[in-house]
Amino acid sequence: xxxxxxAPPFAITLDVGSSRANLTGSWRTERPQYVRLTAxxxxxxxxAEDVQQWLYHAEEGGYEAAWRKIMERNPFPAVSGRICYHPxxxxxxxxxxxxxxxxxxxxxxxxxxxxxxxxxxxxxxRDGGRRVLVIGAGPSGLSAAYHLALLGHHVTVRDxxxxxxxxxxxxxxxxxxxREILDAxxxxxxxxxxxxxxxxxVSDVVAERAAGSYDAVFLAVGATLPQRTYIPAxxxxxxxxxxxxxxDAEDGSAGPPLLGRRVAVYGGGNTAMDAARTAKRxxxxxxxxxxxxxxxxxxxxxxxxxxxxAEGIQVKWLTTITAxxxxxxxxxxxxxxxxxxxxxxxxFEKLGADAVVLATGQVSDLSLLEGVAGIExxxxxxxxxxxxxxxxxxxxxxxxxxxAERTATVAIGHGRRAAHGIDRWLRGEPADEGxxxxxxxSATGVGPAPMTAQVPFERLNTxxxxxxxxxxxxxxxxxRRSSTFDEVVLGLDESNALFEARRxxxxxxxxACDNCYGxxxxxxxxxxxxxxxxxxAFDLDYCKGCGVCAAExxxxxxxxxxxxx
Amino acid sequence: xxxxxxxxxxxxxxxxxxxxxxxxxxxxxxxxQRANAITCGHRACQGCGEAxxxxxxxxxALRATDGDLIATNATGCLEVFSTPYPxxxxxxxxxxxxxxxxxxxxxGVAAALKAKGNTHTRVVGQGGxxxxxxxGFACLSGMFERGxxxxxxxxxxxxxxxxxxxxxxxxxxxxxxxxxxxxxDQPGAAWGQGKDAALIALAHEIPYxxxxxxxxxxxxxxxxxxxxxxRGARYIHVLVTCPLGWGAASADSIxxxxxxxxxxxxxxxxxxxxDVVSVTKIRHRTPVEEYLKLQTRFRHLFAPVxxxxxxxxxxxxxDRNIARFGLLxxxxxxxxxxxxxxxx
Amino acid sequence: MLEQIEGSQAVARAVAACRPEVICAxxxxxxxHIVEALSRQVKSGALAPCEFVNVESEYAAMSxxxxxxxTGARAYTATASxxxxxxxxxxxxxxxxxxxxxxxVANRAIGAPINIWNDHSDSMSQRDSGWIQLYVxxxxxxxxxxxxxxxxxxxxxxxxxxxxxxxxxxxxxxxxELPEQEQVDQFLPTFVPRQQLDPEHPLTIGAMVxxxxxxxxxxxxxxxxxxxxxxxxxxxxxFEQRFGRSSGGLVRRYRSDDAETIIVALGSVLGTIEDxxxxxxxxxxxxxxxxxxxxxxxxxxEVRSALAGAGRVIVLEKALSVGIGGIVSQNVQxxxxxxxxxxxxAIAGLGGRPITKASLRxxxxxxxxxxxxxxxxxxxxxxxxxxxxxxxxxxxRSGPHAENMLRDVGVVGAGPV
Lengths: 565, 344, 417
Known about the structure:
The structure holds three protein chains of three kinds.
Chain A: E1 13-15, E2 30-34, H1 40-43, H2 51-59, H3 63-71, H4 77-83, H5 87-91, H6 103-117, E3 131-135, H7 139-150, E4 154-159, H8 167-170, H9 179-191, E5 195-198, H10 205-211, E6 216-219, E7 225-226, E8 239-241, H11 242-251, E9 262-266, H12 270-281, E10 286-290, H13 302-310, E11 314-316, E12 319-325, E13 328-336, E14 342-352, E15 355-358, E16 362-363, E17 377-378, E18 381-382, E19 395-397, H14 408-426, H15 437-442, H16 478-481, H17 494-502, H18 515-519, E20 525-527, E21 536-538, H19 548-552, E22 558-562
Parallel strand pairs in A: 3-4, 3-6, 4-5, 6-19, 8-15, 9-10, 9-15, 10-11
Antiparallel strand pairs in A: 2-22, 7-16, 12-13, 13-14, 17-18, 20-21
Helix pairs in contact in A: 2-3, 2-17, 3-6, 4-6, 6-17, 7-14, 11-12
Chain B: E1 5-8, H1 49-64, E2 69-73, H2 77-82, E3 94-96, H3 102-115, E4 122-128, H4 129-134, H5 137-146, E5 151-156, H6 197-203, E6 208-213, H7 217-228, E7 234-239, H8 243-246, H9 253-262, E8 269-272, E9 275-279, H10 288-292, H11 308-325, H12 331-338, E10 340-343
Parallel strand pairs in B: 2-3, 2-4, 4-5, 5-7, 6-7
Antiparallel strand pairs in B: 1-10, 6-8, 8-9
Chain C: E1 2-6, H1 7-17, E2 22-25, H2 32-44, E3 51-54, H3 58-70, E4 75-79, H4 81-86, H5 88-96, E5 102-107, H6 121-125, E6 132-135, H7 139-156, E7 160-165, E8 173-177, H8 181-187, E9 203-205, H9 214-243, E10 251-254, E11 261-265, H10 269-282, E12 287-292, E13 294-296, H11 300-307, E14 312-317, H12 328-335, E15 342-347, H13 357-368, E16 375-377, H14 382-394, H15 401-408
Parallel strand pairs in C: 2-3, 2-4, 4-5, 5-7, 6-7, 11-12, 11-14, 14-15, 15-16
Antiparallel strand pairs in C: 1-8, 6-13, 10-12
Helix pairs in contact in C: 1-2, 1-7, 3-5, 7-9, 11-12, 14-15
């Protein structure tokens, strides 16, 4: 019959939360760990952009941070956002769920934002910088110049054309790449201190290097000479080269090229598409592509073909031109053999055409390398090592003149790789033969664990991502676009760029979704505030190693490893 | 230029949280300040779905009541793994009495609160499927019909796991348990038995009945929140995985619950006053085999002789759920409603 | 206030005066009148604040009481017979959790055969449930002991069963002094729970306890009941001070101080026994009676002291432990260990059979003559059982005894066997 606060009964009644004394971590045979893995987009990027990382910033609306992340690798976001064939999207895991993330369109949005806002890259100090000559102001040369400048070197860029840009200016029509965009991104490189010498021809590299006291040379002369294709032609036949056509259409100094009412473009690559579409814009009523194989064997990108077809370009598949005369071509129908190679059938027909545009490929003009010791060429391209150095010490090469796929983005990647190779060489460090794309991603030091393995789709837990098809970029009315050189594909506005960025599944990289924290049956995931290397940590005192966190991580950023014994 | 109206979808909305959404739109489980009604050190098996389900549900209830909650608990795994002397994992006032009386004890708590004029403290009763649909069913039904102010949550792992995996009225047909062994012509639990406790609860015409799984955290939390906004008898039936009893990998706990939902084996719905008012649509319809083959309790359907007849029967059951509850219809419409519209 | 009132109604009034906050009820005869009356009081607002819960079973009744008590509410219920057995599991739980629930047991037989009439089989079966068991002899005592029960339960944090004979007391109308509310309020302090479900101070109630501490928990349960042995007389004394009546306590002696023969019994039968004692005393026989008022905890010392001088003790029991005989008598024998008194068990009043003065006189006479064996079934129809035993011996498949015997006495028509 006492009063006051009575004591609760022994053993039957317990203090709350007292089980924390029971460290269940001892049950564990496997433990989870956070990892950073290479997302397929980044692994697929020829310019080695860390796509997942810049998308991460873009998802939060951190556009400038996202842009700066791109600029660590690629000085041409606005250009690439228009002309890149985006292998990142081909690699994107989301393609297996619904549609790939529209990485390219987001990149363009970011590039355009940067131009609109005037974001600049700070000019680095040049103490101890060396002198480097870059020959060729195309994507590869400009990329090299940009990165060399960032590395503190004195860069001179020389090109025989009156304006910088190379094939970005003289090969890609302005309806795909407006020139003010290109000019603005090149101007940013100039602003970093790269010196441009335009309309200047280099005929002897070794002599030029010695005369200018350059410590190193980066060759990026591209592939500007047309591949010779023999077509028996009458004297009145009008045959022009696609590259020349595109250059003249851009240059304008010789007046618009005169092609006639009906134009046949011979070839099946992207240049053929550009030439056919340019011919239409120059006044041709009929623009027809003649290609010796079929659609599935065509090297042009599907998107290019689709745009061309939408503009009324016709394609004559499985056809070769056997003779050209005034206003008329003789063509032969082809068949594919079991290897996919076209074989003549002996069936001929006539095709009306006022001009033939040859778009059957280009080769590099390597005359400036004649007699240079140590340089090896094969199939008219220059062999380079892992640092992009040729067999001649201090002479590096990249872009279309080295063995690789010939795209602007590949060239941009070469430029950066060469810049770092030159820098390393100048500092007397050995070439890094293993400098692959995945390794290059880890060079940013974004996380404690090296990014090694790529993330297969199966590793993701895609249930957590709501279904969200890719934003369709609005396209100019086909009628209108075929008559002008206005840009065909329009960009995303902020809301849909943000949306598109948020479709990213963040493959192999924690997206801070709190799922691991939520799904742990043992409350053994701790949210870090502020985040450390990761946003979370495992409380190994209590983690029983069930693996639910790893299984339920939407992006595959947790893996189970055997418990150390 | 003509504008196309496109629908856009926010992403990541099924994860616990997302740095891209406002904190109040994130799951309770993403909150660093969440109550952790069951804290660390409990003795549940690795990957225990019940530990997860109970924490999800009670943390949501605690959020909804501002921490003003009393819980009762039936005998069973949840009770045993959380309160072996001298350690308790609970951080809420909690009482375990018997196997079959969690609902009645909850009624008593609610009655006491009412008598004391306490209108703010809320009551949650909890039990496993055995404690709920079998031995505790009379108390549960009594609590329902009287309209006692209790939310009762059943954590259904489809057998008596605590005692060593014996069959309950919630054990699905063909499932192996230690009392429905995989022998004879119709191995596993018999067909034509078992009861759907949630539908029976609905038949009491109580204000709120819902089913949920540990795979859809936000859905479960929303339902608990809804339930806590209502007075009277309420019931939530949560499918929780038992890696031990189901013979599944501990890491697959949530995956299995998700498959139960996505196959139609476990329909997820909400009802009010006797009527089903909404269903959670299947997002990626999956054949039942994907669910069955991950569990050794169904192993006898695949080896030594593959029982396509039984698998087809289970599929038919799932299909019936899909048809009966409309788990697929109007999927797109619903999703479109949630989508943000943006002009292009 | 003196009133001519039915026992159940009087108990309901007493219980209501104790201001229970939660009452849960399930109908079973003969306790129904108590909860019916309480339901009216709650519904009418006369008893407030109080929640009256119509539960679906006795198991639920005790469970609701457990929940309510654990939440700090004064909880009450009543039951009998099968109902008590149906809540058995919860009875052990309530005591194990140390919840001061008060319950009236309107004592009734348990089946089969089903029987609604009075004996002590029900509460006796729960003697090990950990509840305090108080047996009352009259409706006045029933009223008084309910008041004491709440005070006692809450003081030791144990549940208390007040056992009163079904029908004999619950349905008997007699003059009862009913306590004034004010008096009760003074006597019964506000309930301060030893533990409580409270979000402000969360606790885990009902842990699982393994071999490492289970013995200690059980020891402490025993210790608490032993504590109650001191407390029960204390509360009874206090009650007497406040109300001027002697009720409750551990044992009550009736003319037993110099008695050679002492009858030990529980409940309302003491009235009949005392009448016979008086008659026999008038003839010069040294006979007395001792009422066991508290059966659990077992007041061994008080029983020993009360019976120390007796040469012969007859324990009159209204329950049978099949296979051994008496229940109370085993306890008495234990209390008398080492003393010379012979202890006889007399099973009487099962299933409502009246215990008449004539039967008692006969029983005591047999004792006096030294003809009383260790175990006696008072008023047993020997002819009937002997016939059935014969039938059993001759045919092992002779069918249910009860039906056979009823056929023998002509209650059931003789059908084809």
